[in-house]
Amino acid sequence: MPGEPAPSASSPVSSASPVAPVTTASGGTDPTDATRTTATRAAATRTTEGRAACADLLDRPAEWGPVDTPAGVFQLVPVRLERDLSLISRWMNDPAVAAFWELAGPETVTADHLRPQLDGDGRSVPCLGVLAGTPMSYWEIYRADLDPLARHYPARPHDTGIHLLIGGVDDRGRGVGTTLLRAVADLVLDNRRLCGRVVAEPDLRNTPSVSAFLSAGFRFSAEIELPGKRAALMIRDRNHRAHL
Fold this sequence. Notes:
Elements: H1 31-55, E1 67-69, E2 72-78, H2 81-92, H3 95-101, H4 107-118, E3 124-131, E4 134-143, E5 160-166, H5 176-191, E6 197-200, H6 207-215, E7 219-226, E8 229-237
Parallel strand pairs: 5-6
Antiparallel strand pairs: 1-2, 2-3, 3-4, 4-5, 6-8, 7-8
Helix pairs in contact: 2-4, 5-6
């Protein structure tokens, strides 16, 4: 961000911090300058607190850890552009993926999609899905209630959305997507205590994706019109987990 960096969360500005008063030529304290100093300190505190809150919008997916699934040990690993761009871009250029993600082209196209998330306030976290030690899928975990999607359905506070693609052709069409969708929905609900629902909005034309969500315990809620597609609103309720 432009401007001077705010104090770190480990050393927040507080009202107890010593600040040297600004004195006038006659030796007294200028009340105007003192007011400005107090206001500056208060603004810095608000900025620090705001950034700390933003860093927690999704309860730190990087710390969710691995889980056992019928397909093997699975983990979400936040994307690092310098490490992962070539792989994700290659997946985006697969015709089956490009038909719905529409990010085919040079690596700069994928980079332009990833950077706003990586440089943003933490409301969307792009991740690699690593299965049995191999990166094989791409995921976006995002705050659906803070996303433009919330304009198109009756969002609730802390609704968490997921986007995904299965990168390897060998991992498609044999139930791996369903297994991982169930695992990721469980990860969200286990680690985001205030989240009551996991939502998704696959393209209605993408029948394998819609079917995978249904098999993973999501329910079809509605058809919604989004910019560029007509989508199936899929919802996995926390209280539905006991029935899976």
